[in-house]
Design brief:
mainly alpha
Length: 480
């Protein structure tokens, strides 16, 4: 029996089954409030990285940066924080520690998502993978080309990397608004596209915006990475060695001069995406233990001797421990890791990143730069280049028979995905900081990213709303 369409899409494209059920029950008490909450819930309550807390933090940062408290606010993030071990001393500002120490956690999720898509998702089959792959290539090449056409020969050309990447969190949150009226394959397409797009952005960070590379750090990180692979091959289960080795990878990459976000992706790529035990094997192995648990538990309940009862309960606990471990083995490690990290990334990492990195001082001088090559290049690259590159490259790949468009996903929806891909934001702001450092050029680039992201979100939302089925038609199967 197939689940109701509305329920299935809600679960797939945004909310967890429990939250979906809560939203349905809430509608009985207040239909108006329920309709409003259903609209904003994907931005705050999704099972994966969501854009709501990041958006709130961005607005707060803009307000504080342009308030009488601006100097104290920015001075707080510029406070130097040092870590010393013997003669070795590392010192960065608080904002830099957030970029180097916390932001990699977001990229652990990115790495795990990329691997999941390559092993089990749309990227696992060549023709299906070729569609988002072609779109991602076009979504990087065309925006950079347009940006360089506008900024070529000027100092602004150094910021070409800021138009490469897509903010996955905002894009998926907007798609989730149409959870019951768009095909589930649309979200999978966006996620697969963003996975490849993120890899491209990280390569740009590693090779275009990192300083001199120290091979010693890379050797240390490589050795730790090899150790993780070795532990996986011998079937080591305990998480402690993996955590310690992950910290060594992070430290080695940071020491090498390559930005530490690359360490996050490497760590995410090592996490298993398949369970250690399939459900059939689980059923075969645990059934005797379940029977044994019932026998021992029943004997303990019937026994009147305290010593015998205590011994029987210890045996029951041992069997429960076995069942717990076997049940845990049926779930892939990547899902558990993402589940643990996602709330921290949603409500701590990304908001702190926005608060410490969004420094746009709105002034007549800055607004006067809207017509500058830098701002126009960013806007043109993200708002025009992303959808143009995504649509153009996927259409050519499909016409040549290399790629296959997902079932039930129309070309209009593909244009909508391309438009949402123009929401650069998180990593665009990050790369702008790497390209320009502090100063008015970084502020101008950030302003361009902010304007472009808002325009891309509005255009993408409008296109998907046009493509979406009428709400009553989408909900009819669920009511039936």
């Amino acid at each position: 029996m197939q689940p109701p369409r509305g329920s299935r899409h809600c679960q797939t494209m945004g909310l967890s089954p429990r939250l979906t059920g809560r939203a349905t029950a809430r509608a009985h008490h207040s239909p108006v409030a329920s309709a409003f909450l259903r609209k904003i819930e994907p931005f705050f309550a999704g099972r994966e990285v969501t854009g709501g807390p990041l958006l709130v933090a961005t607005i707060l940062a803009l307000v504080l940066t342009n308030s009488p408290f601006a100097r104290a606010f920015e001075g707080f993030w510029d406070t130097p924080v040092s870590v010393a071990f013997g003669a070795r001393r590392v010192s960065h500002s608080l904002a830099e520690w957030i970029d180097h120490g916390l932001l990699p956690l977001f990229f652990v999720i990115v790495g795990a998502d990329v691997k999941r898509e390559m092993v089990m998702g749309p990227l696992a089959q060549w023709r299906s993978a070729a569609f988002p792959l072609a779109g991602a290539v076009g979504g990087m090449v065309v925006p950079v080309g347009l940006y360089l056409v506008v900024t070529g020969g000027t100092p602004a050309a150094a910021g070409w990397g800021s138009v490469i990447t897509t903010d996955t969190a905002f894009g998926l949150a907007l798609i989730a608004l149409f959870a019951t009226s768009l095909p589930a394959g649309l979200r999978a397409l966006m996620l697969a596209f963003a996975a490849v797009d993120d890899v491209g952005g990280l390569l740009v960070i590693a090779f275009a915006y990192s300083g001199a590379i120290d091979p010693y750090g890379l050797i240390v990180a490589g050795a730790a990475l090899a150790a993780i692979v070795g532990l996986r091959r011998v079937g080591w289960v305990s998480s402690v060695p993996y955590v310690l080795l992950a910290l060594i990878i992070w430290g080695g990459v940071l020491e090498s001069g390559i930005h530490a976000t690359i360490a996050g992706v490497l760590i995410g790529l090592t996490v298993p995406v398949r369970p250690r035990l399939d459900q059939r094997s689980f059923a075969e192995r645990v059934q005797p233990r379940v029977d044994a648990f019932q026998d021992v538990h029943g004997a303990a309940e019937r026994s009147e001797d305290d010593g015998t009862q205590e011994a029987l309960r210890e045996q029951a606990e041992e069997r429960l421990g076995y069942l717990q471990e076997m049940a845990s083995a049926t779930r892939e490690a990547s899902s558990r890791l993402i589940e643990i990290l996602t709330p921290w990334v949603n409500y701590v990492v990304l908001p702190l990143f926005a608060l410490s990195n969004v420094r746009i001082h709105v002034s007549g001088e800055l607004l006067g730069m809207i017509g500058s090559p830098l701002v126009l290049g960013v806007i043109l690259g993200l708002v025009v280049g992303k959808p143009l590159g995504f649509l153009g490259f996927t259409w050519v790949a499909s016409a040549l028979g290399v790629a296959r468009r997902p079932d039930q996903v129309s070309w209009s929806m593909v244009i909508g995905i391309g438009a949402l891909a123009g929401i650069g934001f998180t990593i665009s702001l990050f790369i702008a900081g790497l390209a320009f450092g502090e100063g008015e050029m970084r502020e101008a680039a950030s302003l361009g990213v902010l304007i472009a992201s808002m325009l891309a979100a509005a255009i993408g939302y409008a296109i998907l709303r046009f493509c979406a089925e009428p709400r009553h038609a989408a909900e009819a199967p669920a009511q039936a």
